[in-house]
Amino acid sequence: MRSDPNREDRHTDRVTFLWLTGFMLLSLVIRILSYSTEFERTDGVGMVPVGHVVIFETSSTLVLIALIPMVAALLSRASPGQHGTTRVALVHVAGVTAYSLIHVLCMAALRKLSFAAFGLGQYDFMDASAPLREFIYEYRKDIFSYLLTAMFLLMSRQLAEQRRELATIRQEARSTQRLALKSGGQTHWIDGQSVRYVKAAGNYVEVHAAGAPVLARTTLNAIEQTLRDAGVGAVRLHRSYVVNRALIRRTVPNGEGDLQVELDCGAVIPCSRRYREQLDAPVAA
Length: 285
Prior knowledge:
The protein is α+β, with helices and mostly antiparallel strands.
């Protein structure tokens, strides 16, 4: 049964919300403690009372936490890479403006209530003579907060999607003994037993089987496990190479503790001493 990507995004967003909340609260505590230390060091000369700063920082942080779901909802409506550039720009320009307005209004309301509750007198958030200047000051800061929140949400969604794709590929390998390799927008289906070796290539791997090598965006560890899921006796011989052990023709020591491993296709793969024992060890399932 095909999973619902929107439902999966919501689950990922809930987890990200908890992480962001923890990070923002930790940052809040650090800022307040740092200010308190500086206040004590200078005897508070020329500084705002610590109690006031606690209210200022806490009110802003709580509203920003409450606005995380709003950013997630806007990303679902206009996500880079999934929707058009114009749509993304319009939605998020409007979104960050609404985000800042809500932040400012709710933050000011919380501060007024807190000042009244603790008997701290009248609280005036903005300079009545220049409200636009005050809002622009807050707006600039809110743009950064909005973008940072959106970035964390997008990264979390992308990582979750990669994990789901890997799980699907591994399940496919177990059931059909084939590898589904994504490359340049295409999916290549390769019989697992035909794979001779795999070479790391930066953020990609080169899969050498029958025909031309396939460059796939995955890790060497992931492809090694997927090969094993497909029933292939894949072994790691080097930090940059995984080979099909059934296709090894011979090994030749180089006199320095390392080996040169020759495959039946004539390819010669280096085997570092760190991985030599894997040639004789049983292959883990």
